[in-house]
Structure formats: structure tokens, C-alpha cells
Amino acid sequence: MFDLVEKTAFEASYPAGNARLSFAGETPLLTRPRLVSLANALPSELVEFNAGDLPISVSPDNVPDAGMSAAETIEKIGSANSWMVLRNIERDPAYADVMEKVLDTVRDIVKHKTGPMHRCEAFVFISSPGAVTPFHFDEEHNILIQIEGRKEFTIYSQHDRELASQEDLEAFHCGAHRNLSVSEEKLARGKATTMEPGDAIYVPPLAPHWVRVLGDAPSLSLSITWRSDASQRACYLHQINRDLREKGAAPSFPGRNPVADQLKIWRASGKRRLGKLFGTQPA
User: Fold this and answer.
1) Total structural domains in the chain?
2) Among 55, 91, 132, 185, which has the highest number of CB atoms less than 10 A from its own CB?
3) Within this chain, do residues 244 and 175 fall inside the same structural domain, yes or no?
4) What is the CATH number of the domain that holds 209?
């Protein structure tokens, strides 16, 4: 099972900055034959396929189908020119145990700084040599552990509004795709990290990033994510701001005006309660 080698970097960076980490250990649950069984057992909506030869900046509308089943992709990943994600593997009790053991290595730090972990989830990424995961962001706190192969992980500041505007964030939290368009000039702002087996990286919520597999071997990595009280509050505020913007307002960014943020939440929560009481959603 996986143990965090040293906590100092995580403790110094969490929750706002990224950090390089290192994990020791292994598990037979992350061998390819076992992952084929897992992929076949998961509901189809929890298995995502993508072509491997994607540009770094790509619209989700321009991502072609990979064209193979989950089992075929895993078995032929060395030559399949694709990458795939097995989502919510914690639905399987054995993988839930792996997730909890990883989270236990940082749980005390997380609890001290941001309170309890919410909506803990686990994902496996399986990628062909040279495969690119395009420029995107995610809403969760994330620890990504490299299991097999090598990859280059390039990360950007979650505070750079030229990379992800307030409107981008509002749309994302209301259901828009995670991929972002970005220019070559702005791509140069990122910090690239080469990840070998056992290496890991902590990625803060909404920090844009993209990934490329290095070398001639496929890549296998494990992602463990969670939400905090603060990240869930920010998500809710982005949703509220999207609604306000559609009505002609120019809402402030979450966190810049705590009093206004709280008033927005009270108003939106009150509207929801009234909507449930009367079976309508008040304007």
C-alpha cells in the first residue's frame, strides 16, 4: 500500500500551492489484468476514452472517439495511441481501502488547515506513450501518484485570470467542460515536473494543468481527490455568480468581498428553501 515518504512539502503548500511528493509502496490492484476486471465491472459512464494525439489546447467538441473498449485499451495501451480514465474506483471496496490509506497520510494536515474531507474519490489514468491530456482544470484537491511509466505534468497558477477567467470558472461550475483554450504564449507560464514511478504531485483546486507521457512506455497513475469546506463554498459562489451575471450583474470574485459572498449565499439558500416549500423557484 502507498505511504507518503515525507509530509513537509505538502504541509507547507496545502491548500493553495502545488507540491512535489513521493510515495512508497505498491498494490496488485493496480496491475493491468486487475484493471481490466475493474473496467469491465464499472458502469460505462465511469470509463472515459480519449485519443492520445490531442493538442495541448483543444475544445471538447474536437476530441475524437478512441474507438476501443476499456479492456482493449488497457491490454493494447502500449500501441493504442489513447488515454483513458476509470472514475470513482472507490465504489469497489478494495480500491476504497487504497484511497483511504492514501488520504490517511495527509488527513491530519488537511483537517487542521481546511477541516474535514468531503466527497473523497479515486481515479486511475492509463495512457499510451506520447499521449497528451489537454489543458484543463478540476474543482477538487488532488494528489496524483505515478505508478508506471514517466510523464511531464505542467501546472499553472489558479489565480491567473488570463488562463481561466471568472466567466470560465462560473461556466465550469454550472456544467461546462473542463478543457480550456490557451495560447502558446500563455502556455509558457507553466511549471513542468517530470514524474517517475513513486513520484506524486499535489494540485490545488482550479489550478490549470496539462500532461504528456514521456518515453516509449505507457503511463499508469492514481488520482485521489477531495473537496474542502472552502472549495465547496467557492463552487457554490461561482454558481450563484453565473446566475447573477445572466441577469446583468457584475459579481465580485469569490473571496474578494466576504460580506457580499455571505449575503449571496443567504439569499440563494433562502430562495431554494422557498422553492421547495412552494414547489417553485422564486425569481
Assistant:
1) 2
2) 132
3) no
4) 2.60.120.650
Query: Edge-to-edge strand order for the sheet containing 141-148?
Result: 3-4, 19-24, 199-203, 141-148, 219-227, 118-127, 82-86, 47-51
Q: Is the dihedral of CA 219, 220, 222, 223 positive or negative?
A: positive
In the chain, where does DSSP find H-type helix? 8-13, 32-41, 70-75, 93-104, 107-114, 166-173, 184-187, 229-246, 258-278
Q: Are 173 and 240 within one domain?
A: no
Give domain status of residue 283, yes or no.
Answer: no
pLDDT digits (tens, 9 = 90+) for 139-198: 999 999 999 999 999 999 999 999 999 999 999 999 999 999 989 999 999 999 999 999
Amino acid at 148: E
C-beta separation of 133 from 153 below 8 A: no
- pTM for the model: 0.90
203 and 236 in one domain?
no
**Closest Cα partner for 239 from 165, 175, 178, 173?**
173
* Torsion angles phi and psi, residue 190, rounded to 5: -80, 165
